[in-house]
Amino acid sequence: MALKHNGKIALITGANKGIGFEVARQLGAEGITVLLGARNPQLGEAAAAKLKAEGADAHFIELDVTKPETITKAAEKIRAEHGRLDILVNNAGVFLKGDGPPSLADPEAVRQTLEANFFGVLAVTQGLLPLVRNAPSGRIVMVSSGLGSLTWNADPSWSFAGIKPLGYNGSKAILNMLTVQLAWELKDTPIKVNIVNPGYTATDLNGNSGTQTIEEGAAETVRQSLVPDDAPTGGFFETGGVVPW
Fold first, then answer.
1. Residue-wise pLDDT tens for the chain (245 aa)?
2. Mind telling me the catalytic residues?
3. Which residue in 10, 130, 173, 192 has the fewest CB atoms around it within 10 Å?
4. Are 193 and 243 in contact (CB under 8 A)?
């Protein structure tokens, strides 16, 4: 039986491990050609080989969101081989040592966090948007965090209220703004732009201390990648609901 999403092309950044790899695995199981963006060729190739062994049409593509030349090359490669991009998942992100509350955060750690988590996403999105426009109904999914919600950050009763790394939380908050503005800019196109809170998932980012499995953490990103043409755009979602800005 042919899968509904057969023939689609998806690029997932930071896809050699964690949530990014699991998103690629689940999309690949839907019959989608998955391009695994990763900085490290050895790790990226190994991840793609693992998915190929499971039957997915998976390919490594070298992509470091902080190095514009790799974004340009990736876009050229996708254009030459596929001519379009149906799904872009901006998953790559960092949580750096030295980040912390405003009075203590190392400004350089904050700067580097913004470089990867915001400016890198902006560069990738701008570089690949022409290819997403070439798709019949493109999807752009940003991977944010509940820590990027201003509403939750301001709520002392929130269960994660004590977690206030300025760089990380701030980078996700500005990523939320990018999502709202890009969705508005593309509102008259078939492209859907949404942002996801994966939830507290056990990954390398938090020393595997998260309370969710990788599969649970990837679920909403996968869902937003595959939403129908009448789905909303410009929203902040998590499994089971909507996240306040």
1. 346 677 899 999 999 999 999 999 999 999 999 999 999 999 999 999 999 999 999 999 999 999 999 999 999 999 999 999 999 999 999 999 999 999 999 999 999 999 999 999 999 999 999 999 999 999 999 999 999 999 999 999 999 999 999 999 999 999 999 999 999 999 999 999 999 999 875 555 555 555 668 888 899 999 999 999 999 999 999 998 999 99
2. 168, 172
3. 130
4. no
Task: Give the CATH number of domain 65-242; options: 2.40.50.140, 3.30.429.10, 3.40.50.720, 3.40.50.740.
Answer: 3.40.50.720
Domain residue spans of the chain: 65-242
DSSP summary character for residue 195? E
Contact 65, 124 (CB under 8 A): yes
